[in-house]
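Let's study my pick:
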Amino acid sequence: MLWVSMIGWMLISQAVAAYNQASLLEREAAIATAESRVAQYRSSLGTVANDLAKRQDFIEKSVQGSIGSLPRTLPSGTGSGDTVSDSTEEAGKTVRKISMVLPEATGLAQIEARQLAFVEALTRYADARAVRAENAMRSLGLNPGLVAAADHAAMGGPLIPMATGPGNTLDPRFARFGASLARMSALEQALVRIPNTLPASLDYVSSGFGYRVDPFTGGGAFHAGLDFRGPIGAPIRAAATGTVSFTGVKQGYGNCVEISHGNGMLTRYAHMSRIEARTGDVVQPGSLIGAIGSTGRSTGPHLHFEVRIRDHPVDPRPFLEAMPHVFQEASTKDGSFRPVGHGR
């Protein structure tokens, strides 16, 4: 289908971003042996305590930045496809050995064991959310491998490295956790920017995408979107997360709003009686952006809605019909991934 191929091409540009850490993501994070940890404890308890503080800081910043509120329960144990194994047994050995040779360090060893178990559970949680988002992409005919990267456009700032060990190094298991979070965030952010919310009632589509008889000339013409009938003043809502890139009058469209969703995707809302958005506004799915009208080249009150990829129109209907189910499947029971305003 044309809309599938064009979206796939649009998303190729994301493949060179942060998630291109293939070597890290394709291998399981290694478990530090009890012997190696005992040697480090013997070397310097102060260094170990400092490392644990760095790890805790890493965990807190990562959760705050990518996950937010945690669910009441996190995945436990191991399963097929896990990117991190279970260190419970090895961590237990570490605690027992340190208790025997360095009793004063037992508390630190127990804290470390708890940290590792927590990080492993968080990694499995992030991986599970990423898998749900991947399945949602596949259900739309998209290749999730092309969207598993955060967009690096318009990013910058001072370098503040994340560290969990001596010399500002990053423990492999924590690096695995960070990579899983990056993958999860990239997939979910890409998914939520695909049109997923009806801009008006789908029950009142008066004209579909493609060939039609032009209502003014009576001849054949190409219709670049969907028309939603409705009374003047009925609300028009944003179809996906994005930034308002145009408000005003366009020839043929009348009063018009355009929203950029990144990576060349744009939605257009036309024939409005009233514009409620301003250029530069950041909108969420379901945000009010205007009201149905009959301005421009129009025979009566309706919304003309377009989805454009790199300025080429694609049929909006497959997105709008599939996405409610897609988002339901991608969401978790605790609501950890659910587009703001979806379903209005």
The CA atoms of residues 17 and 176 lie 17 Å apart.
